[in-house]
Amino acid sequence: MPLDPFGRDQHGENARLRAAGPAVLVELPGGVVVWAITHHDTLQQLLADPRIGKNPQLWSTFTEGRLPEGWPLLNFVTVPGMVTADGEEHRRLRGLVTQAFTPRRIAELRPAVEARAAALLDRVALLEGDFDLRAHFAYPLPMQVIGELLGLPARQQDELHELSNTLVSSSATPAAAVAAQQGLFALLASVVAAKRAEPGDDLTTDLIAARAADDRLTEQELVGTLLLMLVAGHETTLNLITNAVRALLAHPEQLRLVLDGRQPWSAVVEETLRYDSPVGQFPLRYATEDIEVGGVLIRRGEALLASYGAAGRDEEHYPDADRFDITRHARHLSLGHGPHFCLGSGLARLEAEIALSGLFGRFPGLTAADGPAPEPIGSVISNSVRTLPVRVG
User: What pLDDT is recorded for position 246?
Assistant: First the structure.
């Protein structure tokens, strides 16, 4: 089953994938064939299965040189860092940044995130007429937060965002994909050079110090880790906030539950993660031996997609799964499971809760603007819309 590289109907596509079985052969852009794991229970099992790895050297298509030149998803396979490491290597790389995302450190960030959200809403209040909530609020909040955490210069953050957008776009041309990867690595390498010359109170400086202390991090791993933190630290939360606002505006009875205090904002965040996962399909994992899944055989050296969007609406796990219902309080897999569970999940949840409570606390009459439905992001990875026009009621 070919996946639409433009992601024009991800939920419809996911329904067809689920109907085909818990493990389905799909074609990614460039004719690359992998297994999509579409059912909740199967995905949860495989995400924690020691027979599934993340090192691209486990993938026969990669090691045999059968990937097309300029493949738009290549960076997800080859970027040096924790996202492509297993076992002790993964624990080493993850351990270097874990301290920045402990529950205590996340809680300490709350006042700063609240202040940034309030300042952005002050600027939104000055806008006249309809405005794009994604561009004016959902994007700058997580970008500013991760930018400060990593010590990224404010003048470079928009450029870094545009390049990371291209990086997660499965519809990018080969030339654009290569240029985005090179541009991101060059910009982040310049950040590292600047921090070496003038250290700061940020995670980049801490990672440089760890490398200088006992060579625990290669230069490529350092830049690769920054790339992962940048993309995961704002793209996912940007989509989460956008998708949550879309869902609430389309379901005013659910919005009323939180505005009246009958449900917490955390319930909106968790249901949005399940119902409209900010990550549709996440590449890639690899079978280290033959594995039977749902009556089909995944052979050693074959690749798997974590189909978070499909698993979130699995009727076998969630009754009435296509209904947005913040009272269900159901667990989900949209932030991962097992050794590669999202390190920044606490920060993403904190930012989304603050963003939503601040937005609707300031503008309880917010509505969707008139006009055609927003266009989806051109990606099988990201799941959201390019713009979200809204109106202050």
Answer: 98
